[in-house]
Amino acid sequence: MESAFLCLRKTRAKLAQNPLKKCRLKGGFMVNVEFSKKHDKRFEKHFSSQMDDITLILKCHLMLEEMLRDFCSEMVPQPQFLKDSRFTFAQILDLSRALYPADIKLGGMVELWSLCEKINRIRNIMAHALDPDSSKLDSHKAAIIEAVRLRGEGSTSALEFVGCLTYVLGAFSLILQVGVTHNNGEDFRDIPRK
Questions:
Q1: Distance (Å, rounded) from C-alpha 65 to C-alpha 186?
Q2: Between residues 55 and 95, the one the model is more confident about
Q3: First CA to last CA across the chain, in angstroms?
Q4: pTM confidence score
Q5: How many Å apart are CA 32 and CA 14, to the nearest integer?
Q6: N or C terminus: which one in the chain shows less Cβ crowding within 10 Å?
């Protein structure tokens, strides 16, 4: 699990070096650190390499949902009206996608939205059946593994399911941070590259 979360750890370390709580990432992107600090701590507290698949899926699903809810709260002018909302995971995912700044081009990372949908499907299959359909579970797991491995950056090609889920959490945290930073008035595309 540690090697899979390396993407987020490297980003977090780079962000921590900047006393202004913002950091310039590869490509000139500027990212607000405050959005992810809470989620980084919660990941370290609740995730371990000893988790079984059911625990891993449930915690990953909860972590994604928490990140999405926080993202939505950051993106709307009156977040107090979302505080006690009872949106489903699918609804909060759709709302987050709708609120994501359209002028931020995610490139290959756009697939993270559909990977979150697959994680939701796996969670629902596991949560709503005593004997879940293993062929459906295996199909969704294989799709997640293939999508992450095809990214081909660093060691992603060797990741198993656990590593792929943590990769999705780290990468999704990053794109949500970029969206929040942009929403807060900073246009990271105008920041000159060093």
A1: 25
A2: 95
A3: 33
A4: 0.77
A5: 12
A6: C
